[in-house]
Amino acid sequence: MLVRNWMNKRPITIQSDSTLADAMALMHNHKIRRLPVMEKDELVGIVTKSDILRTTPPGSMSTYEMHLLSSSTFLYQIMSTDVITVDADALLEEAALILRKNKIGGMPVLSNNKIVGMISGTDILDTFLHVMGISKKGLRLNVTINNQPGELAKLTEIVKKYGNISSIVNFAGKNGKASLVLRLEGSTENKDELQEILLQEGFQVQTLIEA
After folding, report:
1. What is the CATH number of the domain that holds 202?
2. What residues does the CBS domain cover (predicted)?
3. Residue 29 is part of a domain; what is its CATH number?
4. What letter does residue 205 receive in the DSSP assignment?
5. To pair with 137 at 20 to 30 A between CA atoms, which of 22, 36, 129, 147?
6. 153 with 191, same domain?
7. What is the domain range of residue 123?
8. Residues 139, 145: contact at Cβ < 8 Å?
9. Are 24 and 15 in contact (CB under 8 A)?
10. Is 98 within 8 Å of 108 (Cβ atoms)?
11. Span 65-80, average pLDDT
């Protein structure tokens, strides 16, 4: 899965000569926590809600002083210029690693050195939920199989008779085993029958629930 397929393709940006007040209003109106800072079409920095809080700590000044400071402070004065980015054609897991390594919540997405989107931890979590098929009704099967050729094919051959397999997630196990989570769309009436057949075929059923 590529970043470009899951990113926010309409990034909200702001010019470097905009004021702190402009950034605060934009963040509030769009319910976002970070703004790529531009000079015309070039990405030159980023400003986050944390940057704003450091500049205008709550309770440190009067409302008038806060207004005066926010309207006279320009983003080029407070923005971070060392911007962490990811390429639009990078794998989604690469983006997740970058966010985790740098302890940030989101970053601009570039293509040919131009900003084309934003990707956040929430976007990546939404992707995970989509892959897991959380929004679809049916059965959720967690089963342990031997990590060897033919086992997955054998499992799916049995399971597909009880519903459409909408997703399969493989978690690496230990001792030559693999833990799989499958989601099946369709009727849940034959759940007990499916579990019995899987056990007879030597599969270790951890859970089989309606979800």
Report:
1. 3.30.70.260
2. 7-63, 79-136
3. 3.10.580.10
4. E
5. 147
6. yes
7. 3-128
8. no
9. no
10. no
11. 89
C-alpha span between 16 and 7 (Å, rounded): 23
Contact call for residues 103 and 72 (beta carbons, < 8 A): no
Report yes or no: 200 and 142 within 8 Å, Cβ to Cβ: no
**140 and 114, same domain (yes or no):** no
Residue 44, helix vs strand vs coil: strand
Secondary structure (3-state) at 113: coil
| Helical packing angle, 151-159 and 191-200, nearest 10° | 150
**Residue in 72, 74, 73, 94 with CA at minimum distance from that of residue 85:** 94
Give residue for tokens 């040919």. Answer: 112
Whether 9 and 105 map to the same domain: the answer is yes
Number of domains in the chain: 2
Walk across the sheet containing 34-39 and list its strands.
14-15, 34-39, 42-48
Taking the CB of residue 84, how many other CB atoms lie within 10 A of it? 14
Domain boundary among the residues 128, 151, 184 is at 128
* Residues 104 and 140 both lie in one domain: no
User: In this predicted model, what pLDDT tens digit does every residue of 98-112 receive, in sequence order?
Assistant: 999 999 999 999 999
Residue type, 15: Q
**Do 35 and 109 sit in the same domain of this protein?**
yes
- Using one digit for the tens of pLDDT, what is the confidence trace for 2-51? 999 999 999 999 999 999 999 999 999 999 999 999 999 999 999 999 99
Identify the DSSP state of 188: -
pLDDT score, position 204: 92
Token pair in block for residue 94:
């690469």
What six digits make up the tokens of 44? 């030159």
Q: Do 119 and 168 lie in a common domain?
A: no
